[in-house]
Amino acid sequence: MNDRLTALENDIGFLKALAEEGRSPTLVGGSIMIAAGIIFGLASLGQWALRNGLSPSFGVWAPPVIWIAAMVVFMVALAVILRRLGPHKLGEGANRAIGVAWSSAGLAMFTLFVSAGIVAWRTGSDASLMMLCPIVLSVYGLCWSVAASLAGVGWMRLAAIGSFAAALVTALMCNSPSLFLVYAAALAILALLPGVVMVRRARAQG
Length: 206
Description:
about 210 residues; mainly alpha; 8 helices; about 85% helix
């Protein structure tokens, strides 16, 4: 009985924190978005250069290695950033819920990148890597939708819509030599730029 009451109190406290943060939340974690935009944007440019013969060819291993390496670097950066933020900055309510959403998305995308690399290795084709663009952008759209709903921030809804739209565009461009160039641009607009906005607002409010 006591455990149920404790759980109920925790749930009420979480909902209260959401309500208190809803009007003017001080959202943290923009540095995570900046890291994602830069790391995966550079990986996308590297993939674009490989596909267009603008860099030395390293065989079938090069494309999956680029993405898996980028994911590993991002996971390390994510661990460092989360440690620097600490639970006192993540707090409760919207920040914590949004943080859980993005962290879970990061783990999902890590699994996705490794899986695509395995498929590329087993088939000798990088076709599976082209699906990374629309799938990852769809995940971005999902996370931005969750963030917008919890934080009540209008520009996040635009980021969500933009992510879903960019996913469809990259799917249509699956055979285009400019696919990963467009993907890099999408990451700059939908991850790097929002991250900069979040960092600046957090500093202004903090």
